[in-house]
Design goal:
By secondary structure, the protein is mainly alpha-helical. The protein has nine helices and two strands; from the N terminus they run H-H-H-H-H-H-E-E-H-H-H. It folds into three domains: 1-72; 73-117, no CATH class; 129-164. It has a two-stranded antiparallel ribbon. It is elongated. It starts with a helix and ends with a helix. One of its GO terms (biological process) is chromosome organization. This is XRE family transcriptional regulator.
């Protein structure tokens, strides 16, 4: 069975383990070590891995951009649609609904919208960015956001007691 450098590299980029890559591509565990050594020594395989890693960095940029939009994006368009009596097709199509996780009609009329969790998006951004991982200020910011949301929950609950 012949494995091309590109095929080996594509699987290797996902596993980061040469033996596992060889087994996934049909080799026995005994043959895998030998194939791993052979393939990872080849310049063509190294080149293919570098090329795929560079492409992954571009994909990572897309992921970070999406998470940033979730964390910091506006919900104004969604709120405007939610409160509009009869939004037109054009208003709906032109609205930025990137932060909307779910829209559903409620029995008896009305619409319910759920938004993506901004705090989770921030946490994922920190996980994906090595520079942010090292900066304790980012962690302090997340802790402040988290404790602030807990304080708001407590204030809301205390407010409910005041109404009784």
């Amino acid at each position: 069975m012949k494995i091309t450098p590109t095929r080996f590299a594509k699987t290797f980029v996902r596993t980061r383990n040469g033996s596992e890559t060889a087994v996934r591509l049909g080799y026995s565990p005994e043959e895998a070590k030998e194939l791993e050594a052979d393939m990872l020594a080849r310049k063509s395989v190294k080149r293919a891995i570098r090329k795929l890693d560079d492409a992954d960095e571009q994909n990572l940029c897309y992921v970070k951009t999406g998470l940033s939009r979730l964390a910091f994006g506006s919900i104004n368009d969604a709120a405007a649609l939610l409160f509009a009596d009869e939004p037109t097709r054009e208003e709906v199509l032109s609205a930025d609904l990137f932060n909307v996780a779910e829209i559903k009609k409620v029995k008896g009329g009305g619409v319910e919208m759920k938004f993506y969790d901004r705090q989770k998006a921030l946490e994922k951004l920190v996980e994906l960015d090595p520079e942010l991982k090292e900066v304790s200020a980012a962690q302090e910011f997340l802790n402040a956001v988290y404790s602030g949301s807990q304080d708001m929950d407590e204030d809301i609950l205390e407010g409910e007691d005041d109404d009784e």
